[in-house]
């Protein structure tokens, strides 16, 4: 019995930890949204999450090389919109352009990389919630 209770406590702590991290992430993400001037292209912060994805050119988003610049490239935040009724279904939209990555201030580049990672963190929770709601429509009979 104690083992089941311990597992429940651990699970509760983990869920609580995720929710705390998520709230803190959204606060920082909103601040970065203004600092790197994404708000100039997307006026309403929550509209960011209508995009299918947000990507970055000019710097790495891989965990083992996070933030490393790609010489000769341009630092740019790109959003992917999706319209299933359009002839061309997906479209890239520039949300911010910063010029040649090797000429961009290192602190600014780091804020841009952090913005993308924090956006993806929140977007993953939204996707999880969406799928959770979808599986709720299926019968639970096995």
Oligomeric status: single chain
- Total DSSP helices: 2
Reported for the largest beta sheet, the result is: 3 strands, antiparallel
Q: Considering DSSP H and I runs of 4 or more, what fraction of the residues is helical?
A: 40-55%
Net shape: globular
Instruction: Provide the spatial order of strands within the biggest beta sheet.
Output: 1-2-3
User: How far apart, in Å, are the first and last alpha carbons?
Assistant: 27 Å
> Which spans of ≥5 residues are poorly predicted at pLDDT below 50?
none
Tell me the fraction of residues in β-strands, as a range.
Answer: 15-25%
Describe this structure in words.
It is built from 2 helices and 3 strands; from the N terminus they run αβββα. With 142 residues, it is α+β, with helices and mostly antiparallel strands. A 3-stranded antiparallel sheet has the order 1-2-3, with helices on one face. Helix 1 crosses helix 2. It is globular, with a radius of gyration of 19 Å.
């Amino acid at each position: 019995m104690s083992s089941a209770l311990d597992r429940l406590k651990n699970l509760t702590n983990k869920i609580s930890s995720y929710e705390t991290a998520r709230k803190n992430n959204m606060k920082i993400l909103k601040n970065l949204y203004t600092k790197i001037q994404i708000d100039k292209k997307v006026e309403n912060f929550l509209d960011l999450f209508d995009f299918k994805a947000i990507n970055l050119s000019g710097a790495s988003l891989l965990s083992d090389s996070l933030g490393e610049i790609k010489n000769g490239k341009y630092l740019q935040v790109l959003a992917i919109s999706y319209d299933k009724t359009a002839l061309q279904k997906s479209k890239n939209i520039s949300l911010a352009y910063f010029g040649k990555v090797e000429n961009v201030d290192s602190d600014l580049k780091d804020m841009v990389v952090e913005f993308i990672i924090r956006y993806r963190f929140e977007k993953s929770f939204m996707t999880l919630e969406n799928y959770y709601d979808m599986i709720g429509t299926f019968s639970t009979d096995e």
